[in-house]
Amino acid sequence: MDLLRAVIVGAYGTPYQDGLFFFDFHLPPEYPDVPPLAYYHSGGWRINPNLYEEGKVCLSLLNTWTGKGNEVWDPSSSSILQVLVSLQGLVLNAKPYFNEAGYDKQIGTAEGEKNSLSYNENTFLLNCKMMMNLMRRPPKDFDPLIKEHFKKRGFYILRACDAYKKGYLIGSLAKDASTVDDESHANSTSIGFKLMLGKIVPKLLLSLEEIGVDCCEFEHLRNS
After folding, report:
1. Count of domains forming the chain
2. Which of 22, 88, 204, 210 minimizes the number of CB atoms within 10 Å of its CB?
């Protein structure tokens, strides 16, 4: 087998929470002497500095970005699992803004944190659009998995949208999308984000209803 397709579930505590992210891998004849070739299914959206609209994946482990030591591919120890763990933990992380080349110098600065918050807001909006796109046009053979995932997590996705509309910071919620820190409430999300989310959520709610999610508790979001 030299062709693989993997799906990563976005971790809680990040703007990717409950999203599904599809990657194709080709194992060249020289594998494992060389890393696999990767393609990301973007849906046409740029949701991360390491993941491009045309499907390019920038990752040291894939030799598509600079790195040293155990960051780069080692034929004797590197694996597909290591690539997937890196994508989930290092790429689809809580503050993806700082993944951009050179932006790590802004970590801890007022400007950097402000830019990071703005990036997270936009990323969450794109994550919602990608969810709807996946429910409408699921990748081949993954329709059952996608429906099962969104049926299981639909309630929590809408709960997260509700919390973010109230001002909770993107990525500040627990796995069940409950609020874990009252101090993060302080109307922290921008007005522009709330307006955009208000336009997207009714469509997302409809998409979830169509696959059988009970959305009764979120009727107030229908005309938000």
Report:
1. 2
2. 210
Q: Are residues 89 and 192 in the same domain?
A: no
Cβ neighbors of 53 (< 8 A, separation 6 or more) are 42, 44, 45, 46
Query: pLDDT band at 71, cuts 50/70/90?
Result: confident
Task: For tokens 């290591």, name the residue.
Answer: 82
- Please indicate, yes or no, if residue 151 is contained in any of the structural domains: yes
Alpha-carbon dihedral 98, 103, 107, 112, rounded to 10 degrees? -90
CB 24 within 8 A of CB 41: yes
Do 113 and 95 lie in one domain? The reply is: no
Q: Report how far residue 207's alpha carbon sits from residue 1's, in angstroms, rounded to the nearest whole number.
A: 35
pLDDT at residue number 66: 83
215 catalytic, yes or no? no
- Tell me the per-residue pLDDT of 180-193, one tens digit each, with 9 for 90 and over: 765 556 578 999 99
Name the pLDDT band for 146 (thresholds 50, 70, 90): very high
The answer to whether residues 21 and 40 touch, using CB atoms and an 8 Å cutoff, is: yes
Q: Of these residues, 58, 161, 215, 216, which one is catalytic?
A: 58
Place of tokens 């933990």: 89
